[in-house]
From TrEMBL:
Protein name per UniProt: HAD-IC family P-type ATPase
Alphabetized InterPro entries for the sequence: ATPase_P-typ_cyto_dom_N (IPR023299), ATPase_P-typ_P_site (IPR018303), ATPase_P-typ_TM_dom_sf (IPR023298), ATPase_P-typ_transduc_dom_A_sf (IPR008250), ATPase_P-type_domA (IPR059000), HAD-like_sf (IPR036412), HAD_sf (IPR023214), P_typ_ATPase (IPR001757)
Subcellular location: Cell membrane
Stored Pfam families: E1-E2_ATPase, Hydrolase
Main location as per UniProt: membrane
Native species: Rhodococcus daqingensis
Length: 830
């Protein structure tokens, strides 16, 4: 029953209760406003959104900041402000992390708005496109093939409406929906058309909670992130015994006064914390998102950047990927001499299609004369049956689809169609049937009436993209629902290996092992059903492949969902964009190499900087253990104990040019190395030996020049300087190893690091400020000798590790090149 409400201008308007909405015209503007005021809107969290407050909290309140904060308070309590310089790391870690993540958030949010599905809603008798969060309770939402159902509702109109609920239930078979039946948010339309009334919106909708959790901006669930977390956990456990030993040595064995003991303790503990590792990881991911955003690439889940870097097989559709989306009717070849009837049938079919696909749009452009036929039955196109049809009463039953599906492949018409398709053209057959198209036995006996020849243009950048993947040893499999001969013609023209030997998917084996064998041999497949695409992805994964699936149609959804990385075109159906991790908003397959290159840059560079940070952690822990252990042993063997050699300011400057600045630049530099699994073991194989060498060499140099407890202040400073020179020499060499293969800017980076330390040791002001004294010739000579020995040992351990584990040495690898990741220039790392 109608109820009255007062509009803003004082006019009484009639509104309908929820059950009385006029489904043909939808809600009125006043009804929508009333529901918005009552909070009956689809207020679900936006995809890829994390609030600024959450970003700030996540970057400030970290375990590393907590450790450094406590140590900073201890140092400041001694009155030595200079030795608290490492506290700037807290500001740097938090500030840089927040800035970059907020930039990434803004990029993602803007792109997500562009990519978001915009449902068609009936309001005031007009169909309008609105954002999902603008849908209100009782809205009448129109549906077509490929549309995602954004809220829960009840079907009010349905014309052979089939809905896929596999994303919710796991059941792949589409469900036929009739008026009165329920549809759930998160499902999508496979075929047909209709409309439904929103009954549950916002957080009440079935998939809202799931979507809210899955849509957050996150850096988790990746081998890289989990590897870094494992490393940090291991380091935390190491710090406990090392810290206790150094505290015991400083306070009780060396019998230093409290300020000196605390400074020594902090100097030992600070370098154990890999303060920049988490920052650099987050920074690399965030910068990757921003870079890809500039190329109109929406990364809906950040680990997808890492996943694409590991991809070794790309499954691509032909239409919209290798060829452009638009088509043109090249020829209408009559088979019975009655071209006029064929054109009338095509015009009626195209004019009556509420959601025409690319083929039907091309037909509509050329056959635009409406014959005035009235449709009595409809059979919408599906990728499974590969034909559509309409019945028009006395004007007959007409079907349009693949010639080799509607006809026996041995007929003259089927052979003629295949010959045309071998030239790379798309061929459909228009036929008349003896059965209504909605009959259970349809299409029945089909009489060929005309061949519809459609021309597709190959993307100008398709060949270059395929060549890139070939150079990177990434296999490309073209998987299409089109005729195999036509698919093979396009693939072959682009030089894809095996493209000229296409396989008809109707002949593929059902057994997964046999299917995997076929996929290993062949590259081009036609007449592939949606369920077969999914099976092919699974077969490739069963052989250990990391698979990326690209697609734009509703027939690609299941395969996109199961692939390691799903890539959707921006012009694709809302369903494909919803399940894909990456959306190419510019609809260019050629953007994919940049995404792969960005993923490789992120992973390769994080591994590089991890080597630096963990080497520092290893040598810091070892040095603390050696100094602490010497203090404990001195109690039993009656020799003089040694205090920790460094002040907090020493460990700060030691990291400046061996880790801090170089790690920042290397984390953003070009890197084309292919991603490999086993991140943690590989990093530890380098960091542990290098850290052990630095720790032992530094301790030996310090021991040789330490003058004992009776040493003067000058002698203590000289001993610490000796140890610091040894440490810096070997640490710079570790940087030189990690930076391989060399390019001009990397050589400049290493030379700049060396020059930075020479300045620190050469200028009287910096020597005084940082308490450095290299004037002791014997001590400095000892440092140079120990440093040289350490350099040789690090180099030898690096080569031995590579030989044992069969790793290719970067020294003789090809230098990083520009290619798709950009030129190796200083500008490219900014």
């Amino acid at each position: 029953m109608a109820s009255d409400e007062i509009s803003g201008d004082g006019v009484t308007v009639a509104t309908l209760s929820a059950g009385e909405v006029d489904t043909s015209t939808g809600l009125t503007t006043a009804q929508v406003a009333r529901r918005v005021a009552d909070g009956q809107t689809n207020d679900v969290p936006g995809r890829a959104s994390r609030s600024v407050k959450e970003i700030v909290r996540a970057n400030v309140f970290t375990r590393i900041n907590a450790i450094l904060g406590v140590l900073l308070i201890i140092v400041l309590s001694t009155g030595s402000v200079i030795d608290g310089m490492f506290g700037l790391l807290i500001i740097a870690n938090s500030g840089i992390g927040m800035i970059q993540e907020i930039r990434a958030k803004q990029t993602l949010d803007k792109l997500a708005i562009v990519s978001a599905a915009k449902p068609q809603v009936r309001r005031d008798g007009v169909s309008v496109s609105v954002a999902p969060n603008e849908v209100v309770l009782d809205d009448i939402i129109e549906l077509g093939a490929g549309d995602q159902i954004v809220v829960d509702g009840s079907v009010v109109e349905g014309e052979v409406l089939e809905v896929d609920e596999s994303l919710l239930t796991g059941e792949a078979d589409p469900v036929h929906k009739q008026p009165g039946q329920q549809v759930l948010s998160g499902s999508f339309v496979v075929s047909g058309s209709g409309a439904y009334q929103a009954t549950k919106v916002g957080r009440d909708a079935y998939a809202a909670k799931l979507a809210a959790e899955a849509s957050k901006f996150t850096l988790v669930h990746s081998e890289l992130r989990s590897g870094v977390d494992k490393i940090l956990t291991f380091i935390t456990y190491l710090m406990i015994p090392a810290g206790l030993m150094i505290i015991y040595n400083q306070l009780f064995v060396s019998e230093q006064d409290l300020p000196a003991a605390l400074n020594g303790m902090v100097a030992a503990l600070v370098p154990m914390v890999p303060e920049g590792l988490v920052l650099m990881t987050s920074l690399a991911f965030a910068v990757g998102v921003v870079r890809l955003g500039r190329r109109q690439c929406l990364v809906q889940e950040l680990p997808a950047i890492e996943g694409l870097a590991r991809v070794d097989v790309v499954c691509a559709d032909k239409t919209g990927t290798l060829t452009e989306n638009g088509m043109r009717l090249s020829e209408l070849r009559s088979l019975d001499g009655d071209e006029a009837s064929a054109r009338d049938a095509l015009a009626a079919m195209a004019g009556g299609d509420p959601r025409p696909n690319a083929s039907m749009l091309a037909i509509a452009e050329s056959c635009d004369g409406d014959p005035g036929w009235t449709s009595t039955a409809v059979a919408p196109f599906t990728s499974a049956k590969k034909w559509s049809g309409n019945s028009y009463g006395d004007n007959g039953n007409w079907v349009l689809g693949a010639p080799d599906v509607l006809l026996d492949a041995e007929t003259d018409v089927a052979r003629e169609a295949e010959e045309i398709g071998s030239k790379g053209l798309r061929v459909l057959m228009l036929g008349s049937s003896d059965l209504p198209v909605d009959d259970s036995a349809a299409p029945g006996r089909v009489t060929p009436r005309a061949l519809v020849v459609l021309e597709q243009r190959v993307r100008p950048d398709a060949r270059e993209t395929l060549e890139y993947f070939a150079d990177q040893h990434v296999s490309v499999k073209v998987i299409s629902g089109d005729n195999a001969v036509s698919v093979g013609a396009v693939a072959g023209s682009l030089g894809l290996p095996g493209g000229d030997s296409p396989i008809d998917a109707r002949e593929l084996p059902a057994d997964r092992e046999a299917l995997a064998d076929t996929l290993d041999r062949a590259t081009t497949f036609g007449r592939v059903r949606p369920d077969q695409k999914r099976e092919m992805v699974g077969a490739l994964q069963s052989r250990g492949h990391t698979v990326a699936m690209t697609g734009d149609g509703v027939n690609d959804v299941l395969a996109l969902k199961d692939a390691d990385i799903g890539v959707s075109m921006g012009s694709g159906s809302p369903a494909t964009r919803a399940v894909a991790q990456i959306v190419l908003l510019d609809n260019k397959f050629a953007t994919l190499p940049y995404v792969v290159g960005e993923g490789r840059r992120v992973i390769g560079n994080i591994e590089r900087v991890s080597n630096l940070f963990l080497t520092k952690t290893v040598y810091s822990v070892l040095l603390a253990l050696l100094v602490g252990l010497s203090g404990v042993l001195s109690q039993f063997f009656h020799f003089e104990p040694m205090p920790y050699p460094f002040l907090p300011r020493h460990v700060t400057i030691a990291a400046w040019f061996t880790i801090g600045v170089p790690a920042f630049i290397l984390s953003l530099a070009p890197n084309n190395e292919r991603a490999r699994s086993g991140f943690v073991p590989r990093v530890m194989r380098f960091a542990v030996p290098s850290g052990l060498v630095i720790g032992v060499a530094t301790f030996v140099a310090y021991t040789l020049v330490y003058a004992g407890p009776e040493a003067t202040e000058t002698q203590r400073v000289q001993a610490g300087t000796t140890a610091l020179i040894t440490l810096i020499m070997i640490a710079v060499w570790v940087l030189a190893i990690v930076a391989r293969p060399y390019t001009w800017w990397k050589v400049l980076l290493i030379a700049g690091s060396v020059a930075g330390y020479l300045v620190l040791f050469a200028l009287p002001f910096t020597r005084e400020f940082f308490k450095l004294d290299p004037s002791n010739v014997g001590g400095t000579t000892t440092a140079l000798v120990c440093g040289a020995v350490g350099i040789v040992l690090v180099e030898v351990s690096w080569w031995i590790s590579g030989a044992i584990h069969g790793e290719k040495r970067r020294l003789f690898a090809q230098p990083d090149v520009g290619g798709v990741t950009g030129p190796t220039t200083p500008e490219s790392v900014a």
